[in-house]
Design goal:
Layout lengths: L3 H12 L2 H4 L4 E4 L4 E3 L2 E3 L5 E5 L5 E4 L2 E4 L8 H17 L3 H15 L4 H9 L13 H14 L18
Helix pairs in contact: 3-4, 4-6, 5-6
């Protein structure tokens, strides 16, 4: 029996875009128009499809698919999963690399903190294990290493310009 993702990819390859294939109601969002936790997000030209998936998110070239349950998660976690799927768009289907890129990007940009890492650890059962997804324990160890290696958020530098009279 083929896993759900393989069936979906096969159906998309045959029929077209994910929003045309998903049997459940789906909302297609053009690239750059998705807002997560009040913040607009973009992953290049990738479009987003919001539909019931049975898991938090998945990717297909040119598309990021999100389950509606994602929007009830903490803000940093919403951004983490979107960035994780974006990493697949950028770097391919290496789960550990996608996890690492997402967590390091989030820490550097300031939307992923230690509390978010702890949330992922407490909710590790949401992480699928199969031929392409390593066990949760492996992924969590990788996330901890990537978080530790990431640079903290850099404060925005504001330049104050003062003009002396006569200028």
């Amino acid at each position: 029996m083929l896993p759900k993702i393989a069936i979906m990819v096969l159906a998309i390859a045959i029929a077209g875009a994910p929003e045309q294939v998903v049997a459940k109601p789906a909302k297609a969002i053009p690239a750059g128009e998705l807002v997560l936790a009040g913040t607009p997000v973009r992953c290049g030209a990738a479009r987003t499809v919001v539909t019931a998936l049975g898991e938090v998110a998945m990717t297909y070239p040119g598309y990021i698919l999100l389950d509606p349950t994602l929007f009830a998660m903490p803000h940093g976690i919403q951004h983490f999963w979107y960035a994780h799927e974006c990493a697949h768009q950028l770097f391919g289907f290496d789960e550990l690399k996608a996890d690492c890129w997402a967590i390091q990007t989030g820490k550097r940009l300031g939307w992923f903190g230690l509390g978010d890492l702890e949330w992922l650890e407490a909710n590790a059962m949401r992480m699928r294990t199969d031929a392409v997804h390593p066990p949760a324990a492996v992924r969590l160890a990788n996330l901890e290493d990537c978080y530790a290696a990431a640079h903290d958020a850099q404060p925005v530098k504001r330049v104050a310009v003062a003009f002396a009279s006569g200028f």
